[in-house]
Amino acid sequence: MTAEKIHPRYLRMPHAERGMVVGLFGGSFNPPHQGHALVAEIAIRRLGLDQLWWMVTPGNPLKSRNHLAPLAERIALSEAIAPDPRIKVTAFEQALGMNYTADTLARIKAVNRQVHFIWIMGADSLNTFHKWQKWQTIAHTFPIAVIDRPGSTLSYLSAKMAKSFHYARVDEDDARVLWKKRAPAWTFIHGPRSALSSTQLRAGQ
Ligand SMILES: Nc1ncnc2c1ncn2[C@@H]1O[C@H](COP(=O)(O)OP(=O)(O)OP(=O)(O)O)[C@@H](O)[C@H]1O
Ligand SMILES: O=C(O)c1ccc[n+]([C@@H]2O[C@H](COP(=O)([O-])O)[C@@H](O)[C@H]2O)c1
């Protein structure tokens, strides 16, 4: 399926008002599942978000695209599963020709100087974060909230990112004011967990 089948509203960066706190939740969503919806719900509540941009990536640079469903399909399934009107499903990275998060965040920052952003990811992503392009730049761009995930609970201690930015860790009791912190700043949020994964769903389990 090609970009022409994607409604143009998904190819524009969502609009946020000045002063808003906006979570950026990037993912392959191949397919999206209730674990993603739970992360979004926890992030909205614990971080006090006005919006959460559910950013469906054209393709994770570290993953093979062999079994990647078309972007239009991942967008439609994300819309169907996103539980809250504050969630804005988007795929504007496709239109910008970007799939490196560092580039995306630089662009978001450049055009939204008055908005407060927080990058959101699951605990498994924290484990591999140091393999992302310009990962230290990402950590210096926006605060980061890591949501616990079964199997990766200890990443907040063992991940390379966690060690490198140990000094910048914020207690989860202060998650609601994370947006006020100057990056680097990150927190690890515990709460209800889901063991679901897209891999499992693709395997039909
Ligand atoms: N069950 C879950 N609990 C917490 N975070 C999750 C969960 N599932 C996915 N995430 C997070 O959501 C984001 C998008 O994940 P992704 O779309 O790759 O899903 P996935 O289930 O990990 O997929 P796959 O199994 O194909 O790797 C990532 O930051 C990931 O860490
Ligand atoms: O920029 C990178 O090098 C990079 C490497 C791996 C993952 N990411 C981003 O991380 C988000 C989660 O990806 P995924 O495949 O784990 O759902 C998604 O927005 C990807 O574009 C980004």
Automatic annotation (TrEMBL):
Keywords annotated in UniProt: ATP-binding, NAD, Nucleotide-binding, Nucleotidyltransferase, Pyridine nucleotide biosynthesis, Transferase
InterPro entries: Cyt_trans-like (IPR004821), NadD/NMNAT (IPR005248), Rossmann-like_a/b/a_fold (IPR014729)
HAMAP family linked: NaMN_adenylyltr (MF_00244)
Domain Cytidyltransferase-like residue range list: 24-203
Chain's gene name: nadD
Pathway named in the protein's UniProt entry: Cofactor biosynthesis; NAD(+) biosynthesis; deamido-NAD(+) from nicotinate D-ribonucleotide: step 1/1
Function: Catalyzes the reversible adenylation of nicotinate mononucleotide (NaMN) to nicotinic acid adenine dinucleotide (NaAD).
Name used for this protein in its record: Probable nicotinate-nucleotide adenylyltransferase
Family assignment from sequence similarity: Belongs to the NadD family.
Stored CDD domains: NMNAT
Reactions this protein catalyses: nicotinate beta-D-ribonucleotide + ATP + H(+) = deamido-NAD(+) + diphosphate
GO molecular function (one): ATP binding
Record flagged with keyword Nucleotidyltransferase: yes
GO biological process, one term: NAD+ biosynthetic process
